[in-house]
């Protein structure tokens, strides 16, 4: 975890060998950046991760990516070191560019249907943030649908496969996962018991337990308590980007 | 224009011959649906257009598309008549499924960059709606950037091509066009003079004039005054979906 220091105002731009390896600008707790880590790890594409303090960004970051957003993927092998932004666009690019472990169905209709389900998951994402920012748990658990999560329960049950992608996770699994991983943190933040009901979500609960064992998910996994700790720092207005880095340092020194 | 009657509560579901032709559920003035019309027409894919009154939708529409949104594309040749939603997902599907007139660059990096520019155009779309709903022209023309339109001026100038797609319009051209066509309506709705300044936007002005001559654009084109008439009806809370249909009927009867 010692590599998760977030660069900030005054931090020099990190220098890497001229090794042609992709550079991913990220933030350790950003779920959108998490998506790109998952796809890179699922496809076993090597990359350098560079973590950015999003409150006080290093001066040079606006020269790397004019949007100054993360995730941003720098394609160091391409002329002019172009930078891609937007998690879904980056992930779709990686899937086409590195087709060895395909994450979408080959069938074009099924692929489009997968993209619709990814898009629709935005409803859950919005409800998730609304909850974190407004302390309104009703928004998320309204009518026991968990903001549309029931659609995914039904869909996976219908497919009768371990993952949405079949025997292994596909693009939909990975695009949903960052928020599903963080779902487990809510019980540490709110008094209300945030647990998926085993009666209502038996398929998604099995899916979650399988996802946690997936190689790519393991590579970037944090438990609910750790996510809660970061989220609480963010809710207090002082997002503690270097939480993991500082903890690792303390352990090392201790 | 007699085919632009919008089906509503009580309208029977239209019956088409079993001809395998795509069915596009649309609304004549919806810019997102407009995108799909453009791509279908650019690729010369035949389709049946079915216009939906979005305020009072026909009862059967929720059975066609559970989202009850337009655009919705029914793939009548596929088993179970699946329906795709979301303009960008539909357009990307059509581009892959009907590759004869490719609308994206072949190069995967350039394709991803085109998608980023399509995504980024959302800023302009948001400002456009903000203006229409809040009567706040400053939002759109702020700092003379026209809500990010200057990015597209610079980009097209840099490319030195007629269209973003090169010698003919590509996906970016068509995904931007519905709002660019409607831009010309603002001068009829607001007192402030909404014109692209020839000093600041010479490239986009040339582009607009070329786009208007494109076959696919012509197929679905409405002039600024007509768009303004519809928009005013929408702003008054009584969107006049059948405006064109009723006008055509009056002309016929007259």
Question: What do you see in this structure?
Answer:
Two copies of one chain form a homodimer. The first copy, chain A, folds into two domains: 80 residues, Glutaredoxin; 114 residues, Glutathione S-transferase Yfyf (Class Pi), Chain A, domain 2. Helices cover 49% and strands 6% of the residues of chain A. The first copy, chain A, has 13 helices and four strands. In chain A, helix 1 runs parallel beside helix 3 and helix 1 packs across helix 8. The longest helix of chain A has 13 residues. The interface between A and B is medium-sized, with 20 and 20 residues. Chains A, B: GO terms for molecular function: glutathione dehydrogenase (ascorbate) activity; glutathione transferase activity. Chains A, B: It comes from Drosophila melanogaster.
How would you summarize the topology of this molecule?
2 copies of one chain form a homodimer.
Chain A (H helix, E strand, L loop, with lengths): L21 E5 L4 H12 L4 E5 L9 H4 L7 E3 L8 E3 L1 H11 L10 H13 L1 H13 L2 H5 L7 H11 L11 H13 L2 H4 L12 H10 L3 H6 L3 H12 L7 H11 L1
Helix pairs in contact in A: 1-3, 1-8, 4-8
Q: Identify the biggest protein-protein contact and residues per side.
A: A-B, 20 and 20 residues
Radius of gyration of chain A: 19 Å
The CATH class of the largest domain in chain A, by name, is Mainly Alpha
Determine the mean pLDDT of chain A.
92
User: Helices and strands of chain A, in N-to-C order?
Assistant: EHEHEEHHHHHHHHHHH
**Biggest β-sheet of chain A: count, sense, barrel?**
4 strands, mixed
Low-confidence segments of chain A, given as residue ranges, are: none
- Read across the widest sheet of chain A, the strand sequence of neighbours is 2-1-3-4
Secondary-structure content class of chain A: alpha+beta
Straight-line N-to-C gap of chain A: 16 Å
Oligomer: homodimer
Let me know the number of strands of chain A.
4
Query: What is the CATH architecture term of the largest domain in chain A?
Result: Up-down Bundle
Total number of domains of chain A: 2
Gross morphology of chain A is globular
**Percent helix of chain A:** 40-55%
| CATH fold-level label of the largest domain in chain A | Glutathione S-transferase Yfyf (Class Pi), Chain A, domain 2
Strand content of chain A: 5-15%
Number of helices of chain A: 13
